[in-house]
Amino acid sequence: MTDQPTQTGRIIISVDAMGGDSGPAVVVAGIAKSADKNPKIGFILHGQEQELRKLVAKRRVLDGRVVFRDCPDVVTMEDKPSQVVRSGKNTSMWSALEAVRAGEAHGAVSCGNTGALMAMSMLRLRKLPGVNRPAIAILWPSRNPHGFNVMLDVGADVRADAKDLLQYALMGASYARNGMALSRPRIGLLNVGTEEHKGRAELKEAHAMISDFADQANFEFVGFVEGSDIPGDKADVIVTDGFTGNVAIKTGEGTANLIGDLLREAFKYSPLSRLASILAITSLNRLKKRIDPRRVNGGVFLGLNGTVVKSHGGADATGVSAAVKLAFTLAESGFAEKLAARVASTAALAQDAAHSVSQSE
Amino acid sequence: MTDQPTQTGRIIISVDAMGGDSGPAVVVAGIAKSADKNPKIGFILHGQEQELRKLVAKRRVLDGRVVFRDCPDVVTMEDKPSQVVRSGKNTSMWSALEAVRAGEAHGAVSCGNTGALMAMSMLRLRKLPGVNRPAIAILWPSRNPHGFNVMLDVGADVRADAKDLLQYALMGASYARNGMALSRPRIGLLNVGTEEHKGRAELKEAHAMISDFADQANFEFVGFVEGSDIPGDKADVIVTDGFTGNVAIKTGEGTANLIGDLLREAFKYSPLSRLASILAITSLNRLKKRIDPRRVNGGVFLGLNGTVVKSHGGADATGVSAAVKLAFTLAESGFAEKLAARVASTAALAQDAAHSVSQSE
Predict the structure, then answer these.
(1) For A87-116, what is each residue's pLDDT tens digit?
(2) Domains, in order of start, for chain A
(3) What is chain B's mean pLDDT, rounded?
(4) Which value, in Å, is the radius of gyration of the alpha carbons in chain B?
(5) Residue B360: pLDDT above 80?
(6) Which ipTM value was assigned to this complex?
(7) From the list A197, A263, A275, which residue is nearest B279 (CB)?
(8) Of A44, A71, B41, B327, which residue is 20 to 30 A from A174 by alpha carbon distance?
(9) How many CB atoms lie within 10 A of CB B309?
(10) Do B282 and A272 touch (CB under 8 A)?
């Protein structure tokens, strides 16, 4: 960061400015929002430098807070992860991760192709020692006092065995402690029923393993939870495989969007209902804000050497700013280091536990 | 039905009056609603006869339309399916299924324990020839013109291989034709992305098999769909395994309930918003009715020799009546017979298809 000495003391977020559905202007608007709210934040911006310099020049709040990295290529939403890891060295996504790998930035944010970002992150940042499958964790609106639950995995990998689910529990607990300030998070394991005899074999095995680790990893294990508990208040962290998690959050999002659209229609139906919608606008906006997915935009990649936040491809400036804030919060809390220590200290024990569970069966 | 000669010409629904969360009074209120709307319906009511007779006597519309079957025992929500199939012969649930098996009723409805009902149904009604795993299909509010999509399996079995998923597609298509009058239903296979290379191995195999059957089974295959398409308008029938389906619908329900509660809170917030809620009440009630789960109450068990509808355990009279109506509609359309014919005609072909797919890999 030789070209920007004013960055000293700031927490630096490495931002892939390309690859989102709305283009780099929205990304720059998003980081400007973050810079405006947070004097402790600085950026390395990756993409077509000429274009980015123009966009940044329009935002006075970004003066002296952005370092540029020129990248000729962009990963598109259609690119296959397997190709991108081979031929993607000149992309803004690669460059954004490289800055984290080299220790120049404290975390990375990208709105690009999720599969490509995960494949590249695994290649460049490498998995934490002891982690078999990294996971993507998101926040979901819930009935809990803090307003959101952590859910993982929501799509890093379509498979997860009992040991992977244990690691998700450990990583999710660490995330809830550092990202949401919950000192002793409650962990639930997603199943089709709460009775211990229900569900798939790997879930019964994972139930025993997670239960064994609750005390030493400082979380509370509430046992099996159901889909209805994802937005509920029974657990703070919902653990599942990436296939189930991905389907569940997309179903929840789709249902919420349908209700939102039908609500708007209902309010347009008659003169009386149109008047009602004007009277209720403040209350409805408050509700909207409470469950606004943009406010909690950002899937965090867990289990890597470094913090990577995947912002929604269709995120607007508010969404990008939320993802940047998440990367900042985690960087400031020293999350990556704490998670690495947690996983390392339990990895050996997990091996033992897996061993004894499989022997006892 | 010797004690009720007036039932002649009616479609007879066998109703398990016990085992729901709200007791037999709600079940009787529900069948009275149905009887009031539909002169072509008659009932066999299973449970503690003395109590049921008292409840029925209060509803004039049920005069001469109910046959009673006295059953001393009740399956509770806590009973394990494996126990119930051994020791449940004197329960109202068993008796309700027995009436279908004996050909005295055209379909059965129960609000009881889902797992027990499925286990008993498999034991008493037996699987259709060619069906490996029966499935539970539900209707989910959607953006489609008919207002709902069919989704299966939502929890009959936590496993499903490619051949099972093909059978679900065939059974779901048949259900959509007979239950929803869609002549050529669009079938989608649930996955974590719409690209053909995504997801688990059994899904890729199922994709090929379902695609091969689309023409001869008279449905359109739209390929992979995502969780967001469950309430969407891309497909009419969503096919998935029972684990994923169960988690998805419970997540959707939980999210919808959370939004509903927050909406009520929002309208209570200020005098202005309270006034707004009064002005908007008609519109909001219309919205509520549109997505009211009670209106589409009833999971249909597919793949058995006979129609069984599982009503929600917490259903009120409106919910019970909706489940009864569903059983009636399916019975009237000759659904069970058509489905049996469809599965039989494709079972042999499916075997061949599975064989050729596995050979080509």
Answers:
(1) 999 999 999 999 999 999 999 999 998 889
(2) 1-129+303-333 (3.40.718.10), 132-296 (3.40.718.10)
(3) 87
(4) 21
(5) no
(6) 0.85
(7) A275
(8) A44
(9) 27
(10) yes
